[in-house]
Specification:
2 copies of one chain form a homodimer. By secondary structure, the first copy, chain A, is mainly α. Chain A contains 5 helices and 2 strands; from the N terminus they run αααββαα. Chains A and B meet through helix 4 and helix 5 of A and helix 4 and helix 5 of B. Chain A binds a DNA duplex through helix 3.
DNA sequence: GTAACTGTATTATTGATATAATACAATAAT
DNA sequence: ATTATTGTATTATATCAATAATACAGTTAC
């Protein structure tokens, strides 16, 4: 799986975002065990401490929980996952529309541009 | 004019973005003189050095030019402004659609969400 | 002509981030 | 029972970003 970490923003933030997306879009299955901190860090080619920091953030959000000597697990709370997915999408749409509006581009033009995109 | 500087990303980057948008959307008129570095810094409530750094970036892009003891001026190149505006919009759309697609949300749903937005 | 203002440069200090190198206690695996 | 693996914590170092405090030479304004 691709970990595209750029250096334009804090690495741990980018890790949180990538992990969150994988949980919300089902790449990581509800209730299953994650790779170990060290293995995840190896995959993403970051320092284990940095990955640990990202996982701590996800635990605060309730998206994962840790069993101290066994590993980190994806939450079982499917409603939480659905809700956060909806919330994230909503935020992205709001942010995007705000920027586009500020550029002085109309809704009609925006939808035309999106229709040209492949998805 | 509102300067909404958060502390989630480098301040000078946010200043570049805000100034660029103001030039591209016509808030700052082609060929006119900008406020002085110190006054702009005061308006945005940042350190003059930070504002200076942002202005240097804009000069690299060709959006402003400086007359050393007179002030900074918006470029006269209207085509450059039009082109950069189009490019920026295109980039925003691409980035947005990439994120939305990765969340597993369809184009149809996306357009419905955008239609609910006010612009 | 003098004073104020211009962009620009320099130096120092502080805080956040990333990495590195360990360490440890509890559990899982063998 | 021993070994390896787990999350977690600690300490140190390096780099980048932001601010602060000046400084200077060349206009511009009066």
């Amino acid at each position: 799986m691709a970990w595209e970490i750029k250096n334009d923003r804090p690495v741990y933030i980018q890790l949180v975002e990538e992990l969150e997306i994988r949980i919300l879009n089902g790449t990581y299955t509800v209730g299953t065990k994650l790779l170990s901190v060290r293995d995840l860090a190896g995959e993403a080619q970051v320092n284990p401490n940095t990955m640990q920091k990202a996982l701590s953030e996800l635990e605060k959000k309730g998206l994962i929980y840790s069993r101290r000597t066994s590993g980190n697990y994806i939450t079982d709370d499917e409603k939480l996952i659905r809700d956060l997915r909806t919330e994230l999408a909503s935020n992205e749409v709001g942010e995007f529309c705000g920027k586009i509006k500020k550029l002085g581009i109309t809704k009609k033009e925006t939808i035309e541009l999106i229709n040209k995109e492949d998805f």
